[in-house]
Amino acid sequence: MRAEQVLLNASAAASLDEGLEETLTLHRLGIFQELGTSLKTTNALESIHARVESRTAKVDHWRNSEQKQRWLATALLDLEPRLRRIRNYRALPLLREALRRQLETKKAAA
């Protein structure tokens, strides 16, 4: 194998490994077909986190949790227009129901 192929395969393996747990969770919940395209990685959440961090990182001291919550809400409202809609977002109620069923199953088992 050439060096480029090894690097490409290592990169592909790392990418697969990064999203594997989320992908398997979506399959286990039975919603991969409907929401897998958008939710098989945590990239969307990481992007939101990074954008909020860029707006709040320079604050050294929060007076109280209410102030922190206001800053967070302001940052989220500011970046909301630049967020992309989840593909097949109308299927999100399926996710809620699947999670509810899983929680009920875990409670019954405990």
List the helices and strands and how they pair.
Layout: H1 3-29, H2 32-39, H3 43-56, H4 65-79, H5 92-109
Give your account of this protein's structure.
- By secondary structure, the protein is mostly helical.
- The protein has one domain (3-109).
- It is 75% helix and 0% strand.
- The protein contains 5 helices and no strands.
- It has helices spanning 3-29, 32-39, 43-56, 65-79, 92-109.
- Helix 1 packs across helix 2 (32-39) and helix 3 packs across helix 4 (65-79).
- The mean pLDDT is 84.
Oligomer: single chain
Stretches with pLDDT under 50, minimum 5 residues: none
Number of separate helices: 5
Number of domains: 1
Mean pLDDT: 84
- Please give the alpha-carbon distance between the first and last residues: 51 Å
What does the radius of gyration come to?
A: 19 Å
Number of strands: 0
Proportion of residues in helical segments = over 70%
The share of residues in extended strands comes to: under 5%
Largest beta-sheet characterization? none
Query: What global shape is seen?
Result: extended
- Helix/strand/pairing category: mainly alpha
List SSEs in N-to-C order. HHHHH
